[in-house]
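Example record for the data management plan.
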Amino acid sequence: MSPPVIKAKKRKNDSECRVFKSSWTLDFFVVKHNEYLLCLICQEKIAVFKEYNIKRHYSTKDADTFDTLTSQVRIDRVNLLKDSINSQQSFFKADKLSSETATISAF
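Corresponding structural encoding:
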């Protein structure tokens, strides 16, 4: 007879009460989008709201290009990247809406 199998409980990131800090946007070029973090530079999702994870992502993938930017230039670049993301999202939302309208009118 084999010993009983004990399953470890899975930790849920949602139950850890992690919150987005607005300083991360300027420091690491990330914004909160729905339920995850979005890197403004490479547009990758970062699932865990931990500064260590965000810092690691930034330092391994994007720091060599954007660490040289300081003060107002950095702020301007963040705003430009945010606008770019917003325009991409609005483009796809508008396209989805027009396709739904065409489907409805076809019936």
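Summary line stored alongside the record: The chain has one domain: 18-106.
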